[in-house]
Write a structure and sequence with these properties.
2 copies of one chain form a homodimer.
Chain A lengths: L31 E6 L1 H5 L8 H16 L3 E6 L2 H23 L16 H21 L5 E6 L2 H4 L1 H16 L3 E6 L24 H11 L4 E6 L19 E2 L19 H14 L3 E6 L9 H6 L6 E3 L9 H17 L2 H17 L1 H15 L5 H7 L3 H17 L7 E8 L2 E9 L2 E6 L5 H12 L2 E5 L5 H15 L8 E3 L6 H4 L8 E5 L2 H10 L13 E5 L5 H13 L8 E7 L6 H12 L3 E4 L1 H6 L18 E7 L2 H11 L4 E5 L3 H10 L4 E6 L6 H4 L6 E3 L7 E3 L5 E12 L15 E2 L9
Parallel strand pairs in A: 1-2, 1-5, 2-4, 3-4, 5-7, 6-8, 11-12, 11-14, 12-13, 15-16, 15-19, 16-18, 17-18, 19-20
Antiparallel strand pairs in A: 7-8, 9-10, 9-24, 10-23, 21-22
Chain lengths: ~750, ~750
């Protein structure tokens, strides 16, 4: 229909007839969708009354999908509950009028209501429910139609055909059919009577009704919403119950159904049978929770977008393990990796380094495939980042060999040793963090680098690379596993399928200990937003300042400002704001800086104070917090070093800030006061980098204030554990009645060699 | 009315006539509430169509409050927009029937609609909007009544009185009046004509209508929802614009209104005038966003619960600064604290220690006040925790003096020094984290301890103590500031008002760097859940294991198990699960352990394997992950040390795990393999504690895997920064064309003295 806002019609390709979708990512293509709403979804309220907000947001999502050009159908429950509500209300109203005539305030509130009969409730509820659906869908310019069905409507061939053609006609007219069982004439079915095989399914609840209907109408997708998250491998609430992401028909025996299912009529077993029946009929099925307030507002659209919500039923079992299984395998093998000798981890890295040279041809050939696929689809800078060469591989191999050497002393290093008491010794030692998830874009050379870092630090690793480099990543990962296998820990590093959504990975908070995004600051920001409960190592912003003091040397100021801004303007450690001491305005040093910036074609934006000093000012900045990431910068005037520090604290991102001055005392004050990860005097901001700092390999740059800050080397991938060795010591021994005393003597440890 | 679920009637005390509420926390008492819905709330859709889900959840909240016994009124907008919608729909329907007779599919979708006249839309929309409200409220057994008003209804005395008595009658009948301007007969008002003083307010938009109505009806609270977050001190979007939490009439001149307000008719300035008018009439006002999907579902109930949502208008300006101002003051003074000499920080701590002894009487007298107030209201254990004594103060003072001595080397310690190149030297030094928020319950002795830790580490500190200790906390905080003032940094430690909600504090993510909860594991869990984007240092669970190996010594096993479980069962480092090697079953060591547990009255729960070995088994555990925190534990049987490790990895919380064995190789394997913060051999789990580890003061115990792990001392309150000193160095100097080379020579640093 005519009225739609901001939702272009999705191009939906026809689905191969009779085949359900193999992957969640294909659900985007679903054209005809049946949404089944369990009565818990329609009528169970949270605090009081019915779940109106929930119903409205479900209508909202169905409307969005309908207005994308899909054909939506709703199978609804809840008429009985609605009827109860309505009849109570009517009775109360009629009573209240009578009572109000001869009673005071508040008596209404305590009035009791008669017990209501279910069939009458169904009749009364049906119209109320439909009125509500209609009122809601009208707001989206969508018409609805009411269809009441009974079991017989599917068994009688004539009735079945009538139903079928009516529904098709409605869909053709862009009308959303709302289907319910005719509870007023048909009694609620007997629970626990089995479904009759796969070819016939008896309609005894809305699960079987919706499955029957979806197959009859050749729907692409059936979304069954109730108050359970989906299918669990054991009864929910038991110690090891896990939500199943994808369920395959063959897996049925691996499921233990709880005896007391909360889902009532039909229960989970019946839901699964109905889902499998629909699947065999060619309709994909997702069972999900429609009552969880955290997801209700987008559960249906999320499912259609292919996100991991509830349980997806698929006929096609993929060859590899799921990402959850990969994580488990990685953690397990990672523990073995961590228990190897440092030399053994070094051997693995050296072996990987050798393989990069030996298997050069295979790698470059895989890379050429990616390049060919990318040509014309990606921009030239992205293609450059994608491409490998013999030279790149050689320098990679050299870097890895260096890392192998320097990593000897990372895991198991003793940081501290204390004699707590006689024969009670405490050690704090370095251990790996656990399972890392590294998400990287484009550059496939990231893969062996990051893998070597994980190996050196004894961490398990999940790698999620970009689709554009999938062939190159595959061979590089294969070589990494080959190297790992020399010590039997091939599984410690896993390549995650390109089909997995980054957002879903960021939710695996019990399985992944640290996420490291390697790529643009947009990537980092997105991941920081998506990560729920998992720490993210990275910085999303670099608003770096260079402050040129009144006592700066002309040459140093020019050199440092030029290098900070122009060496690589897209880097996070490039200067964004130049702070100039007021006394320098209209002096040679100021003019020379401006000339240099003009020569280098840097576009200048004026801060408010700077603008006020100029007659013809450059454009004034919109915000003093802008990260230009290009040959652009802001210039602002400050009164003093202290004023510069205040400006940096107010507008900076605590990444890297620089002072240029010949006055050592001013420099030291600045270095002491500025509260950023890196603070420099008379040196370019571009030095803020793991390699330039001499940390060996760089894990990333962090602007977080805890754990690791600034450029992060191998140490950022380590944590510590406390090991205490006693001889049956108890704390009671140290109480007033006990016979022991704490000594707390520091025992010297070898000087820490931080790499 | 009769039907309500789980919402007991709130007891609402009468409000002193004509006075608005002084604090948000008093809003819970609001009985008569006007909710004003701007047209953006009622009709502006997100993806397509109208904002139905939003409207429904607003109805839901109004219904909840109504069913708590409050008297709710709604002032609604949106009739015109609704009418547009409805008329379009009707026109399309009538066209579509005709077209369907002689056209193919999809043509409907491209049909255009005529331009509609606003007044007609209003008439058509009014009934649709009311029908929707009625359908929605009916679901909560709540009746609604429609009231259309015009400007004249308030000016004509007779009409005004009629309106007043009608509304009162409706409220008395427990009916929710829904009020709108009669747009069909009255033209939309002229914008930008001023409100007429404070005694008269002309009704020209729904802001002024709702203000007029709220005062007329002596409402306690007016909630004005639109699509802005509230009132900002500068136009939203500018660099420093801050949402004002509480606005006082006198503050009006401190606000800069943007020239281009997005809120259209009336704009923000008019909203504020209307709010101030209502306030002066005795009605409290909150302006908030009703369109933000993150809060829509609970914006109204949150406001009534006193949470920090939008801008609260109050006549009573509190004496002290807001918590945001306190945080700013703390950060500022904290930077000075960090720049002091270590000896100066030590002096402050010593001075605090002395004050605790000197001002003993004042402290104990304040403590007695708290105790008296608590008697009968708190349980005896809580009262014990609340009470201070001379002995407690003395031992506190001694602890503080020790900390003053040991803290000398915390801030500014050089961890690493590198000669990057000639005359380019890099240092990594320890610096404070920034602003800490410590939330503690009951025990007021926590305050000086935590304060001393913050002073020693140079951090700014916000303290949030429990209401039950407010008098004691006040005097202790006063003494802390007295001690800080000897070096001019009194503001570095702030005591947050007991009125502030913990949940609101946990949202100050740009202002607070680390949250440390000190108290029950429930407190920690709640805070971990509430903290958005701020790291939390703490552990919420301690499921600790003791594994008794087949080669364990009888005596050590008995001692370690007894101490681990019985020394202090409520502690997080107490044993929850005892793992026994299979070979020990029915041996003397096993029998003696069981006897000891029986003697100590420890209730035993059997793990599934243990239960299978027994004929008369104790109750089987519900979950192997239970933290009993009492004289209860689970016993489970394992086949080997490796099996014990696997059990611990599967069911443990990575806090503290212990092996008892005489076989050193088995012990070392266990210590190496178990991936917990603390792993012990032949020593009680109760040693996992900062004091027993010899860390001096304990900040807490962390089961996080990054930053700090296990018992955390002062080091956990420090981070690092990188300081680079050059002579105009640029990275270009080191390029292939440059004339410099990286040296990366480690320069020895004094052996790190970890405290």
């Amino acid at each position: 229909m005519g009225w739609r806002r901001g939702s272009p019609w999705t191009v939906l390709l026809p689905r191969p007839h009779g085949k359900s979708f193999a992957h969640r990512s294909e659900l985007k293509q679903a054209k005809r969708i049946v949404v089944k709403l369990g009565s818990a979804v329609v009528t169970r309220g949270d605090e009081c009354g019915l779940a109106l907000g929930r119903l409205a947001s479900i209508v909202e999502q169905v409307a969005v999908l309908q207005n994308q050009g899909r054909e939506m159908m709703i199978v609804t429950s809840g008429a009985v509950a609605f009827g109860k509500q309505r009849l109570r209300h009517e009775i109360l109203l009629s009573q209240s009028v009578r009572q109000a005539l001869h009673s005071g305030q508040n008596q209404l509130k305590d009035m009791s209501v008669p017990v209501l009969e279910a069939r009458a409730c169904a009749a009364a509820g049906q119209s109320g429910l439909m009125a509500l659906y209609e009122a809601m869908f009208t707001q989206y310019s969508i018409c609805t139609a009411q269809i009441l069905v009974t079991n017989l409507d599917f068994h009688d061939e004539q009735k079945r055909r009538n139903l079928n053609s009516t529904l098709h006609e409605l869909l053709r007219m862009n009308i959303v059919p709302i289907i319910n069982t005719n509870d007023a004439v048909v009694p609620p079915p007997v629970p626990n009577s089995d479904l009759q095989g796969v070819n016939v399914i008896s309609i005894k609840d809305n699960d079987s009704l919706s499955a029957r209907l979806a197959v009859e109408m050749k729907a692409d997708l059936l979304i069954a919403l109730s108050d359970v998250q989906g299918l669990y491998d054991s009864p929910p609430g038991t110690d090891d119950a896990k939500l199943i992401d994808i369920f395959y028909p063959g897996d049925q025996q691996s499921i233990t159904f709880g005896t007391k299912s909360r889902v009532g009529l039909g229960g989970m077993e019946a839901k699964v049978k109905a889902a499998l029946w629909a699947l065999q009929g060619g309709t994909s099925v997702v069972i999900a929770n429609g009552t969880d307030p955290k997801v209700t507002g987008h559960v249906i659209t999320d499912i259609v977008e292919g996100k991991k919500v509830g349980t997806f039923f698929s006929e096609v079992k993929p060859a590899g393990p799921t990402v959850e299984q990969q994580t488990e395998m990685a953690r397990h093998a990672g523990r073995t990796l961590a228990s190897l000798l440092p030399e053994q981890r070094g051997e693995i890295i050296c072996s990987l380094s050798e393989l990069l040279t030996e298997k050069k041809d295979e790698i470059l050939s895989a890379n050429r495939k990616d390049m060919e696929l990318a040509t014309g689809r990606l921009s030239q800078p992205l293609i450059n980042r994608l491409s490998l060469s013999t030279a790149k591989l050689n320098s990679l191999a050299i870097g890895l060999r260096q890392l192998a050497v320097s990593s000897g002393n990372s895991v198991g290093r003793v940081l501290r040793r204390t004699r707590v008491a006689n024969n009670l010794e405490l050690e704090q030692i370095t251990v790996p963090i656990g399972v890392l998830l590294v998400i990287f874009e484009s550059r496939p050379d990231c893969l062996p680098q990051v893998s070597a870092l994980a190996i050196a630090s004894g961490n398990a690793l999940l790698l999620k690379g970009g689709k554009e480099a999938s062939n190159t990543n595959k061979i590089l990962h294969h070589l990494t596993q080959e190297a790992l296998s020399i010590h039997g820990v091939a599984d410690a590093i896993q390549l995650v399928s390109t089909r997995e959504e980054v957002e879903d990975l960021c939710k695996l908070d019990k399985m992944i200990d640290l996420i490291i995004p390697r790529g643009s600051s947009e990537l980092v920001r997105d991941i920081q937003r998506a990560a729920k409960g998992i720490p993210v190592l990275g910085h999303s912003e670099g608003v770096c300042h260079v402050y040129v003091d009144s006592e700066a040397s002309i040459d140093k100021a020019i050199d440092v400002v030029k290098d900070s801004k122009c060496d690589y303007p897209a880097a996070c450690n490039a200067m964004e704001t130049l702070l100039i001491h007021r006394d320098l305005l209209r002096t040679p040093i100021f003019d020379q800086i401006i000339d240099m910036l003009r020569t280098e074609q840097v576009k200048i934006h004026a801060g408010p104070r700077f603008a006020s000093y100029l007659t013809f000012s450059p454009s004034e900045v919109k915000s003093l917090r802008t990260e230009y990431g290009d040959l652009e910068c802001c210039i602002e005037v400050v009164d003093s070093m202290q004023d510069a520090v205040d400006h940096i604290h107010k507008y900076g991102s605590s990444h890297t800030d620089v002072i240029v001055t010949e006055n050592e005392e001013t420099a030291e004050q600045f270095l002491q006061q500025v509260d950023s990860a890196c603070v420099f005097s008379n040196a370019s901001s571009r030095f803020a980098d793991g390699y330039r700092f001499g940390l060996g390999a760089e894990v990333g740059i962090s602007t977080a204030r805890i754990h690791a800050r600034g450029p992060v080397g191998l140490d950022g991938l380590l944590t510590t554990k406390w090991v205490l060795r006693g001889e049956g010591h108890t704390v009671a021994d140290f109480s007033e009645q006990g016979n022991m005393k704490y000594l707390h003597e520091n025992i010297p440890v070898p000087q820490g060699n931080f790499n």
